Amino acid sequence: MSSKRTPQLVTVRPWDDGRAWSLQSEILCPPDKSVTHRSVMLAAMARGESEIVYPLMGADCRSTMAVFRALGVTIEGDTGGSAGATVRVSSPGWDGWRSPLTPLDYGNSGTTARLLTGLFAATPGLFVSCFGDASLSTRPMGRVVTPLRAMGAKILGRDDGRLLPMAVYGQPLKAANHTVDKATAQVKSALILAGLNCEGQTQVTLPGGSRDHTERMLAALGAPIAVTKQGPNETVTVTGPFRPAARRHLVPGDPSSAAFFAVLAVLSSGTLVIKGVLDNDTRTGFVTLLEQMGAKFERRRLVDRPGYLEPVMDLVVHGARELKAIETDPAAAPTFIDEVPILAVAAMFASGKSRLRGLGELRVKESDRLSKVVELLTVAGARVWTEGDDLLIEGPTEQVQPFVFDPAEDHRLAMAASILAKFAHAPCRIADPQCVAVSFPDFFEVLASLG
């Protein structure tokens, strides 16, 4: 007999004076999930001892670490996620990984599933079987599997490899030229990582705007990688084989996590300093959009920080009492796709009709995130709807209604709902608050510390 899920509920209480609340504070931005994933992968590929300083110890990154432990990589140290935390990685190197005796659990991590499929497919002699949770098992894997098979990869899986679970038989792959029709960093990165173990050049051409952590980090490590742009497209070329060296990795703060508190500050008066944020324009599209709405930011670039493979800044956010509606370019969507839930919250308070365009990718995230954003804003009293893959919000919302919301175990929806609840006129209740641990384990503690 099946039982209906009874989620845990957290009550978020609003500020007594709502938007008039004055913010004068600073917070440390939590570590970036995408960079943590890649730092773990690069350290596992390198032979010898590496360190990862201030890694995100959320559920997704723990999934990646657990996978490499199963392959014979030792990962240990301070896993508390504090500012000085250090994880030590001792690896036999890419060529020394052993086939795990049991299936690998990818949890809810799409980054783990897609990037490691490329890496494992290009590892001759390695055999892995893998699975994910119920949500990850519905997310498309064919977009990675199909181009890898064109390089000679041997991958079996549900729905002909389009869905997890799957099995990967590592093979010597052939370098190839790929054309991808979407600006997707996970597909691009999977093919780049596979190309690192191929003889010759592997090329990936796709629409510009996708996250570029893999290219930047590999270039900083000395990999023969180049990025060229022509019109709306970019081409990444990597020449293999290449092995990274063991080293010290410093993980910068996560812009996606910073976005929630940036919007909190924008909707308040005063100033918030968010310390140690990754300064990568493929990740900070939300800053551009909030500036277009009327918010004011300062980027204070941090220099002389050895160990970082990308630029880092302190992001200073100034409150904006009046916001105006915006319409976005669909080509820019990859630069703010993960921040759509909290940008939609900001748009509720903007004068006019905002239109966030080209958000189809949100339908295959941890949830159907686009539909759930509409649900959240609706229960809070906003005028919101979709037209195709566009999200439309008519503002300003006169009064945020108290609400009960189930984010369907989606961390970004839970955090967006919590920020919105601070501006309601009565307490709100949000289900499954523990899901924020995927990317921001101490989110509620930081939120409680402000005001």
Per CATH, the superfamily of the largest domain is Enolpyruvate transferase domain
- Report Rg: 22 Å
What CATH calls the topology of the largest domain is UDP-n-acetylglucosamine1-carboxyvinyl-transferase, Chain
Low-confidence stretches: none
Count, helices: 13
Record the SSE blueprint.
Layout: E1 9-12, E2 22-28, H1 33-45, E3 47-53, H2 59-70, E4 74-77, E5 86-92, E6 104-105, H3 110-121, E7 127-131, H4 142-150, E8 154-157, H5 158-161, E9 163-169, E10 177-179, H6 185-195, E11 200-207, H7 213-220, E12 225-230, E13 233-240, E14 248-250, H8 255-266, E15 269-278, H9 285-293, E16 296-302, E17 312-318, E18 323-324, H10 340-348, E19 350-356, H11 369-379, E20 383-387, E21 390-395, E22 404-405, H12 411-421, E23 428-431, H13 443-449
Parallel strand pairs: 2-15, 3-14, 6-7, 10-11, 18-19, 22-23
Antiparallel strand pairs: 1-23, 3-5, 4-5, 7-9, 8-9, 11-13, 12-13, 15-17, 16-17, 19-21, 20-21
Helix pairs in contact: 1-2, 3-6, 4-6, 8-10, 8-12, 9-10, 10-11
